[in-house]
Amino acid sequence: MKFRLTFWKAVLIALLAAAAYATVVRFAQGLGRSTNLSDQFPWGLWIGFDVLCGVMLAAGGFTLTAAVHIFNLQRLKPIVRPTVLTAFLGYVLVCVALMFDLGRPYRIWHPLVMRNPHSVMFEVAYCVMLYTSVLALEFSPIVLERFRLERPLKIIRKALIPLVILGVILSTLHQSSLGTLYLIMPNKLHPFWYTPLLPVFFFLSAIAVGLAMTIFESSMSAKHFGRQLELPILQELGRVLLVVLAVYGILRIEDLVHRGVLQQLFAGAYQRYETLLFLLELVLALAAPLALLAFRRVRSSPGGLYLAAVLVVLGFITNRLNVSITGMESSAGLHYIPRWTELAVTGGIIASGFAMFGLAVKYLPIFPADEPLPAREEPQKAVGGNVVGEAIPEHAGD
Amino acid sequence: MSKALLYDATLCIGCKQCEQACAEKNQLPYNETVAGEERQSDHKFTVVLSKGDKFMRRMCMNCQDPACASVCPVGAMHKTAAGPVIYEESRCMGCRYCMVACPFGVPKYEWSKVLPRVQKCTMCADRVQAGKPTACAEACPTGATKFGERDELIKEAEQRLHDNPGKYVNHVYGLTEVGGTSVLMLSSVPFEEFGFPAELTRDPLPLLTYRVLSRIPDFVPLGGILLGGVWWITHRREEVAAAEAQESAEKEARKARKK
Ligand code: SF4
Ligand code: SF4
Q1: Please, how many CA atoms are within 13 Å of residue A98, restricted to the half-sphere of its CB?
Q2: Per-position DSSP letters for A196-230, written without gaps between them
Q3: Is the pTM above the cut of 0.90?
Q4: Å between A54 CA and nearest CA of chain B
Q5: Do the chains contact at A173 and B115, CB–CB below 8 Å?
Q6: Is residue A102 part of a domain?
Q7: Residues B227, A70: C-beta atoms closer than 8 Å
Q8: What interface predicted TM-score (ipTM) does this complex get?
Q9: CB B216 within 8 A of CB A180
Q10: Predicted confidence band of residue A136 (pLDDT cuts 50, 70, 90)
């Protein structure tokens, strides 16, 4: 196949090149010279975006596998593969980002043998590690099918349900624990965001974002790979998203009222800077998408769903950045603005995510049209040696 | 018994002998420039701050139930029975959660190094172990920084408050803050004016996360059973339907054969 340089490929290559240079700076000169982090502000963009947002954006994996395999919503089945792929790539990239952020990345394995079960970070480390392995296993049938490895394929399919359950438990734990991380700082995190309910909010919003990302991805794939999900599936996702957002919204407002934050806000007790970002978050993540999805017309149109999904994703990215950066600035007594190296690394990580997704879609049977349906629909019949293999149709395009 | 330091700001003359002794003990550079720095850092574990003729020392409080130790995923921070909160560099992977979690903003990082360490006052753990006072207490010419048993120092601090009404802010800082600390402080100037956080809880901070974490062992089996149950129910329906369909088909077939 000939390589054609399109606009997006050029952007990807530029981002990756900048990230490569920033990587050299980071590891040759250390964190001090490659970031704007300081004793007053030890966690910045790499924790706030790459880790907190990264894990959140990959939440579609557990949401959807649970819906399809546990709750038996078979209609959603065609999108399980692209979502599990995104989740797997997401977690791999979170681990890559951690290697940049840790002061001594070569000790990243230390939690395996030096345990402190009282540490939320320890729990997150374990869950992320285990869940990345679970995702790899959940994703493996796609690769195994591609190379027609029957034996491991059969084993994985047998273990699928326990794997999915394990994945859901691990996800529930670490998605909420990323919020628990901040519970120990009641004096540092701004009252807009510090609440004992942080773990609950982080978990609920992860589900919302998981659903929104699935809608978003489907539309993106339609544009760039010419593959799209059927509208009824998207509509179903939109309905669930509406419910999750509504629950989150009610809890969030109740919490704000209960802690007296809204009353204080109207009394003008807070700084402009925090207030603006707080309101921006609430509008993007809650008010706007709820208003959109409340209309049946919007909820049933691909354009409306796409818009709502994008808003939800942007809104909760704002939320994570608010918790990790905006909310910590006043107690630190400074404004943190990432250095170019930090931005370049983050940009490169996002770019490689897109690149890997593109490659996977091209070479592996990810989207519905590629699925070897007979073998997947009746796995119990696939007892004999290579029945599954024979059932796999020639994959177009390889 | 657990050791502690009592710092009485009204006795402090701002000579910074403690700063110098600390630097020597921890093999850090100390000169005019460093003496002028008013911030704790990777090369200055304690600072003597001044406001007019009032002074205040800042350092690691060596909390009784330290947030830094509770959050460290690899247990690099550790409260010793003798009082000091120590740091084991060989475990630390540099996640910097201890820095974010410490309510006093104490742990500092060697940002300029390629392979940095966390740095903080460890209350001269080796000296304390050997039965000696901390370097700063030994160097203090006025007794403003005093080393001793925590219980006895608390009694002494309360006695001083009692004997000199109006001289001090009526509070022993560190007695109850975040569950108590191994550094106790007396001052005539409100502590917040020197950057100490006000309104710290009396509960140790680690409780806040532990309350959530301690539910995990219950959650895991419960979640597993619950999800397994849902799976069983949703898929059972299909099985039943399939079985029924097969049964009725068989009946039909039998009927057909009879005829
Ligand atoms: S003051 Fe901070 S660094 Fe010192 S023991 Fe307490 S939590 Fe740890
Ligand atoms: S930076 Fe080191 S000492 Fe601090 S919490 Fe992380 S691993 Fe523990």
Answers
A1: 23
A2: TTHHHHHHHHHHHHHHHHHHHHHHHHHHHHS----
A3: no
A4: 17
A5: no
A6: yes
A7: yes
A8: 0.86
A9: no
A10: very high
Q: State the CB neighbour count (10 A cutoff) for residue A343.
A: 16
Predicted local confidence at residue B59, as pLDDT: 93
Q: Say if residue A150 is in the same domain as residue A168.
A: yes
Could you tell me whether strands B85-87 and B77-79 are parallel, antiparallel, or unpaired per DSSP bridges? antiparallel
Q: How far is B238 from chain A (nearest CA, A)?
A: 10
| Best residue for ligand 2 mutational test, from B86, B90, B98, B117 (most atoms within 8 Å of Cβ) | B98
- The answer on A271 and A216 residing in a single domain is yes
| Nearest CA-CA partner of A336 in A13, A35, A18, A27 | A35
Residues B237 and B170 in one domain: no
CA terminus-to-terminus distance, chain A: 10
Q: Beta strands B77-79 and B54-58: pairing type?
A: unpaired
Which strand (E) or helix (H) includes residue B47?
A: strand B47-51
How far apart CA B259 and CA B255 sit, in angstroms, is 6
Residue bearing the CA closest to ligand 2, atom 6: B95
* CA distance to partner chain A, nearest, from residue B75 (Å): 5
Domain interval for residue B11:
3-212
Does ligand 1 come within 6 angstroms of the Cβ of B102? yes
| pLDDT score at A391 | 37
pLDDT above 90: percentage of residues in chain B: 66
In this structure, are A212 and A124 located in the same domain? Answer: no
**How many domains, chain A?**
2
- B195 CA distance to ligand 2 centroid (A)? 24
Same domain, B174 and B70: yes
Q: Is B221 on the interface with A (CB under 8 A)?
A: no
Q: Are B243 and B173 part of one and the same domain?
A: no
Look at residue A40 and tell me whether its pLDDT is greater than 90. Answer: yes
**Same domain, residue pair A248 and A347:** no
- How close does chain B come to A120, measured CA to CA in Å? 6
Same domain, B175 and B254: no
Asked if the model's pLDDT at residue A386 lies above 50, the reply is: no
pLDDT, position A389: 36
- pLDDT 10s digits, B116-133: 999 999 999 999 999 999
Query: Among partner residues B74, B115, B224, which is closest to A169 by beta-carbon distance?
Result: B224
User: For position A151, what pLDDT does the model report?
Assistant: 85
pLDDT digits (tens, 9 = 90+) for A50-63: 999 999 999 989 99
Same domain membership, residue A15 and residue A158: yes
Print the domain residue range for A279: 186-336
Residue nearest to atom 6 of ligand 1 (CA): B63
- For ligand 2, residues with CB inside 6 Å are B 71-74, 76-77, 92-98, 118
Do the chains contact at B205 and A186, CB–CB below 8 Å?
yes
Structural domain includes residue A271: yes
Domain count, chain B: 2
From ligand 2's centre to the CA of B20, what distance in Å? 27
- For A162, the closest chain B residue by CA position comes to B228
Q: Does the CB atom of residue B68 touch ligand 1 within 6 A?
A: yes
Domain match, B109 and B151 both: yes
Alpha-carbon span A66 to A230, nearest angstrom:
20
For residue A397, the model assigns a pLDDT of: 35
Q: Average per-residue pLDDT in chain A? A: 86
Phi, psi of B108 (to 5 degrees): -120, 160
Residue A393 has pLDDT above 60, yes or no: no
pLDDT band per the 50, 70, 90 thresholds, residue A72: confident
pLDDT digits (tens, 9 = 90+) for A212-228: 998 887 777 776 666 55
